[in-house]
Specification:
The protein is α+β, with helices and mostly antiparallel strands. Helices cover 27% and strands 18% of the residues.
Length: 275
């Protein structure tokens, strides 16, 4: 040995008193022309509310939400700040074979009102809401005891352009997304479990801010202009047949995404979506 090794002070050691003295603030000159990357970082959410629902059916007119799970996720540090999960009492659950929630369990004495209050606090602190198949989850809010949500929505199934090296098909399932990022899949079809999978996927995304900023770009509905023999190109690009435009391959895209396609698309007006 050439001499004693100096150990760095740990986070748990007492700080030097001099370090507690306020230091003069440095003035940092702002770049008048920020890069595109900086602009993306600024437009990405800081606090992201990752949520999932379990329901007794597919449409609110005939069914109800029986479970809500949510995680408040701090994007810059990839950290979970808080989370909540609660059941909502239901008389019956025809979808028990899917989500494994017995209706009688939802009616057991439980503080679901307190869970809902916690959810409202998490929602208030969120800059955006992320869900897998967000169009489905969003339609249950504003009904019954669940509040309406006026925050921007991000769909991890349709809005996020996952890196090609993950080899994901368009509109991947939560299971496929988790496995592509090396997240073990040990259970399914409970709200907080699926939120946890999404959290662990986002934790592994080095370019998460870019992915979220791109996902939040304004989107319009387009239909693919392709002959029948080339319909596979639309499917590979994430277009869906007959949904929401009947008799066509369609998808919501940002202007950037539409211009990057290898085939022509046509804008669909809102009042002709069901035509």
């Amino acid at each position: 040995m050439t001499g004693p090794i100096e150990e760095q002070p740990s986070l748990w050691q007492q700080s030097d008193l001099l370090s507690l003295v306020a230091q003069p603030k440095q003035v940092v000159a702002l770049d008048p022309s920020p890069s595109n990357h900086d602009l993306k970082l600024r437009s990405a959410p800081i606090n992201l509310l990752i949520l999932d629902t379990e329901t007794t059916g597919l449409e609110p007119v005939l069914a109800q939400c029986i479970e809500v799970g949510a995680v408040l996720f701090h994007v810059p540090t990839r950290s979970v700040l808080s989370q909540v999960s609660f059941l909502l009492p239901a008389a019956a659950n025809p979808a028990e074979h899917v989500n494994g929630i017995a209706a009688e369990v939802t009616r057991l004495p439980q503080p679901w009102q307190a869970g809902l209050k916690h959810f409202l606090a998490l929602l208030a602190d969120a800059d955006a809401v992320l869900a897998h198949n967000a169009a489905f989850d969003a339609k249950w809010f504003g009904l019954g005891p669940l509040p309406p949500i006026d925050k921007p929505w991000i769909c991890s199934m349709d809005d996020i352009e996952w890196p090609p090296e993950r080899h994901l098909r368009p509109a991947p399932s939560v299971r496929d997304l988790a496995l592509a990022y090396g997240v073990p899949v040990w259970a399914a079809h409970r709200a907080l479990t699926d939120c946890t999978y999404l959290v662990q996927v986002l934790e592994r995304c080095a370019n998460l801010e870019d992915l979220l900023a791109a996902a939040m770009e304004p989107k319009l509905l387009y239909r693919a202009n392709l002959p029948y023999a080339e319909r596979h190109k639309a499917k590979q690009a994430g277009f869906r047949w007959n949904e929401p435009v009947r008799g066509a391959w369609s998808r919501r895209l940002s202007e950037r995404q539409a211009q990057a396609l290898a085939f022509e698309v046509q804008r669909v007006e809102a009042d002709s979506e069901a035509a």
